[in-house]
Design brief:
Layout: H1 2-5, H2 8-19, H3 25-40, E1 43-49, E2 52-55, E3 63-65, E4 68-75, E5 79-84, H4 91-95, E6 101-105, H5 119-125, E7 128-135, E8 144-151, E9 155-158, E10 170-173, E11 185-186
Parallel strand pairs: 1-5, 5-6
Antiparallel strand pairs: 1-4, 2-3, 7-8, 9-10, 10-11
Length: 187
């Protein structure tokens, strides 16, 4: 708190504010979200996140942070695109995605599909697109070309049994831009 407050007096003001019963994390979040929405209205915003481990004691009681960098991709579009690595592959992220928000998340789980199939099998059958990028030099590594392979397609992932039945029974994931405004799941 002292670092955030700047001085002892600032630390005490901040502590009193956060301990005030009229202040809730929900209200702080709602206020910040509302101000952010107003600032990005009319912009295509890329929200790029990755996981940072603040403390890992090795016993599963880690403290992780998911910082987000927001960048304007172009002007004139009315959407937010969240880009995340495997740690963002969470069913609730897909099931509770707000309208107008696109997700680009690297798959981590071999999910069960609503048709009984498996995600890895379905993607193994998808057409592969390859492209080349020049990777810049880094400490201990020369610059070099790299070939990337990308597979994508429409899938309908089933809600894991361990999750609440209040979430949709499945969620359709699709690269079809026209599908983004359709309901994201069905009970």
């Amino acid at each position: 708190m002292r670092l955030l407050g700047g001085t002892r007096a600032g630390e005490m003001r901040l502590t009193r504010f956060l301990r005030n019963r009229k202040v809730s994390s929900e209200a702080v979040f709602a206020s910040a979200a509302g101000r952010t929405r107003a600032r990005v209205r009319g912009l295509h915003v890329l929200a790029i996140q990755d996981t940072t481990s603040l403390r890992d004691d090795g016993s599963g009681a880690s403290l992780n942070l998911h910082p987000v960098i927001a960048a304007c991709a172009e002007t004139g579009a009315l959407q937010v695109t969240v880009i995340a690595d495997r740690e963002g592959d969470i069913f609730e992220t897909f099931a509770l995605r707000p309208a107008g928000v696109e997700l680009l998340i690297r798959a981590d789980h071999g999910r069960v599909l609503s048709n009984g199939g498996k995600l890895w099998e379905a993607l193994g059958e998808a057409e592969e697109t390859r492209f080349m990028l020049d990777l810049p030099a880094a400490p201990g590594r020369r610059s070099r070309p790299a070939v990337f392979a990308l597979r994508f397609g429409n899938v309908d992932i089933r809600r894991p049994n361990s999750l609440s039945a209040s979430l949709p029974g499945s969620v359709e994931l699709t690269p079809d831009r026209g599908a983004r405004d359709r309901p994201s799941g069905r009970p």
